[in-house]
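Illustration: F-box domain-containing protein.
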Amino acid sequence: MTEVIESTISYQYCTLANDPDLQMPCSVEQMPNHYYPLLGPKAERVAELAQFKIVQIRVDIHHLESHEQQLQQLVDVYISNLAPVNRLSDEVLGIIFQEVFVSDEGSAGWIWTLSRACKRWRDVIVGNTSFWSHVSLASLSFIPDIDSVEAQCRRVDLQLKRAGGRSLHVELGITSVTHATLEDLVPMVNTTVHPTPESDPLAWAMYGHFEPLFENQHLELLLLQKLKVQNSSANQDSYWFSRMNLRNAPSVKELSISETLFDFLPSLDWSNLDSLRLEMSHFAPSHLLTALSTACNVTHFSLILVSALQDDPRHSQVVVSLDRLVSCNIDFLGASGNPAHHPASGVSNDTAFRRFIAQIRTPRLQRLTLTVASFFADMELARQLFRRPDFDLQDFSTLEYLVLYLNTINDADANLNPFISLLEDLPKLQQLLLGDISDYGNTIVIGSKFCITSLLVALQWPTAGPSSTPHRRRLCPKLAELHLYHVPLHLQAANSLIDTPTSAQDAAPFDKPIGYLKLFLAMVTGGMSQRPYAAPKRREASMSASVGLIGRASMRRCPECVCSRLDDGDDEIWDADGENMGWDEEDHLDHTCNPCDDFDELHNEELEEWGTTSDWNSD
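Result:
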């Protein structure tokens, strides 16, 4: 029986093996006719698509492998770059982080990012309390949800713990912080207040919660050192900082009030202030004078785009002497009620502002910035700033740095005689910057009298007293730098300032021109005078000058270096439309000579403020 079964299986196997259909290659083209209807063209398309996808997958695999190699190369480079950093001690690494990422108030977020880079960096950052001295709570224009507020509070709490007992700086977004959180934070930190610009009730209600912090006699803000009040809505008439009393904050040093209508109580005490800045604001002069009378330690004072309100004539204005003030910025133009410069000129009073300035004395002022509205009146007020009744002005003037911003559109016919008279009272002046800030600065209007030629002539030769008297002296004998921006200038006057020849070797020392002067001209309107320039008859000594002529002068005379002296025989003259100034666009600022070392930093800052040379030439 078994043999019969085996014989039957062998026979069937041989029959299948000899089947011609099974012996044919397995392909669509040679598929037997009785199988073909089951598959047909659809199977052929599927097979072709599969082959295409296989090829595409292989290409993608090759691309991913190539990308992986590139990433590995970047990782290797990154690791090799970090190797020197990893060899640094924790102390040096902490100093690097401190200098790079904690140099300003806006770097608070970087600390959290750095602490996640690696364990070593995290240990260095978390262990240093100075890295956590800035706390930022974002200002939100909508009502935040409870979860986000709680998460933010937990983050602030963690940062306060890491900061330990260090004095902090906190930027508060009013609408995103609860009253309870403010009461916990503000007494502990140095605070910069930035209220939201929206005038919704919630924002102002939260903003009003700061008022009890300064009115509560039992609350002491011992660590408060800097306060900035900024409010974009100038139409309101009552805020908590109007009645701000800093007696409860004995450590506060800086106070800045911007875009605000405010007043001052006579009981204010600002004796601990070092810096006071009022910008885009409105004030009562008599009240501010009363507050300034207590600011006996203020060293920096700024009045920018402010308006003095009509004062009550019954209020007596006393003279305030800021004996420790060394730097002052006064904007007469912003207080003149010009709608183009002051958005709230409707309430400004030019006369009240000038009367306020007339009551201030700064006997030890070293740096002064003036934005002029009325040339004659403002120069007289500037002279009063230095006035001290018990000393001679000429012997005790301490001003070394003076910036004068003009408006040749509104005051084009003014001459420089009042300004020259002011300079006669500043024998210690070393730096003088003169520029036009009119709205039409690209088209300078040259008035019938306004031209700085008289200033250049006055700076070259002694102007005070006859030559036979010992009182004869030069105007600003210590002047070392003169910067002129956007002003009309006769180029022959500048040439005379530069190319004074040597003669009269027996000249007295006080008759000699300035020994070394750095002259920088930018965006000047140059022109030749209609009559030959009458040079001074006496030219006792030569002058060494650093000159950069850049801007709209009709003719440009450029040395090889910005500090080189111009010689008539060696230097070329380029047309006003010429593209080649004789300097490489970047290399001409790379000075190697010693006289330029102190000038480069200021020069580069001015180039950034006014734009590049190519920008000026393209206008």
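Reading the tokens back as a structure: The chain has a mean pLDDT of 62.
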